[in-house]
Specification:
alpha/beta; three-stranded mixed beta sheet; 5 helices; two-stranded antiparallel sheet; 193 residues; Aldehyde Dehydrogenase, Chain A, domain 2; 2 domains
């Protein structure tokens, strides 16, 4: 079973991630950005625990070494209903919600049901799946088979970064060729002498 093999490896690797002060060279996960994100993490973790199965993480870190900052455990949850709010929100905290699908079209449909569309990515060797994904996914930044940061951020200096739907407001990605022009005013001038 692909899912169980994947989850086993994912959970194992996630448990090994070093959560610590980002000034430390060995750090992989630093604190969440602010108190609001910290409180959201607690709220979302409780929802995940109540409606799904947390495979790893789910807790805030409060020991002495974490007293300066909002540190939380990277969290993986499965077993949530497919229409659960955690699948529909932009969380901006380290919670990964896992689900499965029976057909590739259903995976795209499920993803597109979110009112957000910042980034999306897949791994596939199937050319038809790749083309279908690129054609139908509703996100501003999409990746296929990208090993690092497979669904986060754009390649700086190479890609614009901006979302679709409620993940963006203009349809113009930051850093893209059309971004700055949205802040300019057009003016036609005619002088007859």
């Amino acid at each position: 079973n692909v899912k169980s093999q994947f989850l086993s490896r994912l959970v194992e690797k996630t448990k090994k991630l070093r959560v610590e002060n980002p000034k430390e060279r060995e750090s992989f996960v630093g604190p969440v950005i602010n108190l609001n994100a910290y409180n959201n993490f607690k709220k979302y973790s409780k929802l995940a625990s109540n409606h799904g199965n947390i495979l790893t993480g789910g807790s805030v870190l409060q020991s002495e070494e974490f007293r300066h900052g909002f540190y939380v455990e990277p969290t993986i949850v499965e077993g949530l209903p497919s229409r659960h709010p955690l699948f529909k929100k932009e969380l901006f905290v380290p919670i990964l919600c896992i689900t499965e699908y029976d057909k590739f079209d259903n995976a795209i449909k499920m993803t597109n049901e979110s009112e957000y569309g910042l980034t999306s990515g897949i791994y596939s060797n199937n050319r038809e799946e790749i083309l279908k994904f690129l054609q139908d996914i509703e996100a501003g930044v999409v990746y296929v088979n990208r090993k690092k940061s497979s669904t986060t951020g754009a390649m700086v200096g190479r890609q614009s970064f901006g979302g679709w739907k409620d993940s963006g407001t203009t349809g113009k990605g930051t850093g893209g060729r059309y971004y700055l022009t949205q802040f300019m005013r057009e003016q036609s001038q005619t002088v007859v002498e």
